[in-house]
């Protein structure tokens, strides 16, 4: 992985959190690599993938919950703020935490790529899901980052975070059996995801 370049943040984390608090309800803001990013509103297939994954997690690991859109403090280098499509953590993990929670007990972060029609937005989506968030979750020492890539269509499992990078990366096509390593310990039979790859 290429070293991070030193980029001056657009604003402080406190300024971002104030901005996010006053954003309209339909606008979901994140702060990654020193930049404010607008997370696209998910379409129906995106939502079905998240629900499918939530059901798989609850069935195989009833001691855990996949929390959708939970604000996390990530990326110690830039003091980032992310809203993963799913954060797998012990039940009641976020009780008493504010809008932006510490990721200490989060075992897995999940992102499902969005389909964008604008070429510039495609580049933004590519960088956000495949680079910025991957790096942020690794820096926050989240054990597993699962990227459900509807464009490929595939699942990429990032594991073994060390010094801000994932040392293990495995990609499998929709339809394959995908093993989510410990501490997650879930097996996904992904044939159903073919229905949602549009």
Number of domains: 1
CATH topology, which one?
tt1808, chain A
Q: How large a portion of the residues is in β-strands, by DSSP E?
A: 25-35%
Can you identify the CATH superfamily? tt1808, chain A
Count of beta strands: 12
**N/C terminus separation:** 30 Å
Broad shape: globular
What helical percentage do the residues reach? 10-25%
For the record, the CATH architecture stands as Alpha-Beta Complex
Q: Give me the strand/helix succession.
A: HEEHEEEEEHEEEEE
- Using the coordinates above, name the CATH class: Alpha Beta
Strand order of the largest sheet: 3-6-7-8-9-10
Provide the gyration radius in Å: 16 Å
* DSSP summary: helix tally: 3
Outline the low-pLDDT stretches. 1-6, 117-122
Protein architecture, described:
The protein has 198 residues and is α+β, with helices and mostly antiparallel strands. It has one domain (42-196): tt1808, chain A, CATH 3.90.1570.10. Strand 11 (177-180) and strand 12 form a beta hairpin. The chain is built from 3 helices and 12 strands; from the N terminus they run H-E-E-H-E-E-E-E-E-H-E-E-E-E-E.
